[in-house]
Specification:
335 residues, alpha/beta, Rossmann fold, 2 domains, 7-stranded parallel beta sheet
């Protein structure tokens, strides 16, 4: 029987996984990365499952000589070395469509939080400071929102934006006719999104050609009143350029559920072993700490997906992927 190791296992996942355990599952709470101690028992795994907090490099993959499948508990797969997997016949499968509504709703929560200054208001009120002049916000209705990536999550976001009476611009390689007909989305080029949007929400996967899509040049083309929302991947944004744009008021605000090099925040072991970090990771870590201090920024710890409904769908799809693979069928693969 194939040995299956789940890494990044949270307490709320354990009951589900144990109920579906046929005796081949091993549950490990910590993420999988280059600092993970892979003992002989774990190294025998033919299947591993990880979340986005893992960093599945070729170095760590080389410690699993029998590995045949990586079952991701996420849609994104940029945290896995696909080149190594392809070279060693390791199948990589994702869990698509689990958090379409969850992520879209959270993106809207960030957008509302920033434009209505909800968190500064709460903080002031709890400290018995009442100064409405400092808390004047903006309405969403009638404003223009640009949606970068109009796939399943982006489409769910579009439906919410339509309900808020917003003008919707979309940037995607494959226009969706249903969204055009039902919700009035207008597909435009990236330059138009930057120039015309009051809000921009990112819902694109991270690819080689959109790394740092939002850089200093992009921020210079945005409205000074614009708010940027990112619930996709931190690397879509140049962190230093974002900080400079916010600090110099070239844009009005940001709501961020993801950050560049966020693993240095989420995994204490990486900070303890700080000498192992690259210069870019060190720079991003410093910039992230400064972003936390800006009053016009909301930062959350990669939790847009994190609802009971989405978690159930993630685990259900992951188990289905594993069972199908053991029966000789491949589904939801990315390589």
């Amino acid at each position: 029987m194939a040995k299956i190791v789940f890494f990044d296992v949270e307490d709320y996942e354990k009951d589900f996984l144990n109920k579906n355990n046929d005796g081949s599952f091993f549950l490990v709470e910590s993420p999988l990365n280059d600092q993970t101690k892979v003992n002989e028992e774990l190294s025998e795994a033919e299947i591993i499952s990880v979340f986005t907090t893992s960093r599945v490099t070729k170095n760590i993959l080389s410690k699993f000589p029998n590995l045949k499948l990586i079952a991701l508990r996420s849609v994104g797969f940029n945290h896995v070395d696909l080149d190594y997997c392809n070279a060693h016949n390791i199948t990589v499968e994702t869990s698509p469509n689990y958090g379409n509504k969850s992520v879209a709703e959270f993106a809207f929560a960030l957008m509302l939080g920033v434009c209505r200054k909800i968190f500064p208001a709460e903080n002031d009120y709890k400290n018995m400071v009442i100064n409405p002049n400092n808390l004047v916000g903006s309405e969403l209705g009638g404003k223009t929102v640009g949606v970068i990536g109009v796939g399943a999550i982006g489409a769910a976001f579009v439906r919410l934006a339509y309900g808020f009476d917003m003008k919707i611009l979309g940037y995607d390689l494959k226009p969706n006719r249903e969204l055009i007909d039902k919700y009035g989305i207008k597909y435009v080029d990236f330059e138009t999104i930057l120039r015309e949007s009051d809000f921009i929400s990112l819902h694109a996967p991270l690819m080689k050609d959109n790394f740092h899509l939002f850089d200093a040049e992009a921020f210079a083309k945005m409205k000074k009143s614009a708010v940027l929302i990112n619930t996709a991947r931190g690397e879509l944004i140049d962190s230093e350029a974002l900080f400079n744009a916010l600090a110099s008021e070239k844009i009005a605000g940001a709501g961020l559920d993801v950050l560049e090099s966020e693993a240095t925040i989420n995994d204490l072991n990486l900070v303890i072993g700080i000498n192992r970090l690259s210069n870019d990771e060190l720079r991003n870590t410093i910039i992230n700490s400064r972003l936390f201090q800006l009053p016009n920024v909301i930062v959350t710890p990669h939790i847009a997906y994190n609802t009971y409904e989405a978690i159930d769908r993630i685990l259900t799809t992951t188990i289905s992927n594993i069972q199908a693979f053991r029966e000789g069928r491949i589904q939801n693969n990315v390589n």
